[in-house]
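ERR on first pass: missing label on line 2. Operator R.T. fixed the label and resubmitted. Corrected input:
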Amino acid sequence: MTVGIRNEPYLIINIFFAGVILLVFAYSGFFSPDKDNYPVTCVHEQLTGLPCVSCGLSHSYSLIVRGRIDEAYQWNRYGMRIFLFFAAQLVLRVAFSIFYLKYPDTRKQLIIVDYIGSGIVFIVSFWPFMMSIITGIFYK
Amino acid sequence: MEEVKNNTGQNLGIAALITAVITFVLAVIPCIGLIAIIPGIIAIVLASVGLSQAARNASPRGVLLAGLIIAIVASLISFSQIFVAGKIAQKAEKWPNSIQNIINDVQDNVTKELEDANVSIKIESNGDKVEINTNSNKKDQVKKLEDLEGGKIQESDSIQKSDSVQINVIVKKKK
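pass 2 clean. output:
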């Protein structure tokens, strides 16, 4: 049985997300932590003059890509867990797409497991950032 | 005859869902959370247009609704960061006073620690040697004041009068 990718939203979404994650990795690899030539600066710091919990994330990613893990932790302590989230998602997008094509009978269950699992992993990975936003909203 | 599936608005739905998920990821990163409002609005517009098309042709709306809900939540998170930044900026105005108090405390502690310190500086250049010894010993200052005033003085007086620092300079010239 042949499956037209155009008629499969799940596959299109997976391909797009894999592409976006690859772009994130390319960004990390292209810009150098030594030259400090990152185009994106912290909007939060520009507005308040204070660094936020996600400051140094680009540096952290670039250092992880270059294998300088200790330095990556110094730039942002949560950099590694978010990098691992993206790396895991890249593998999962490919793996789930293969399963989706190989086992057409279990597609619905596969999509449900994928969305729930990815959602939980996302919350766990980004929890410190979410907490900083929540505490910021309720800060008196 | 095979039933033809009506997929009007589905492409918009996929685009909206992808944009919405990317917006959500961006929105929870405080550094770029505010920027996420732009793709958030794009996703809401895409999903809304798709929903109206789907409603006209009675096509499935699952992906479109998912995209719309995620986009709205992501935009709200992104928008909330304006308030967070505003609150922090407002509170930050009070922090300099607190920081100044901490600096004063540290300064007082360091001054107290150095009150009885002896400092010796030696400079040597082309055989010429300059040696500077400073002695701010409070007890010595008290003794010196006693000698000068020819009598006993109160500890509080000695503190006020012990602002001066004794400096001995020894210059050794090369022959």
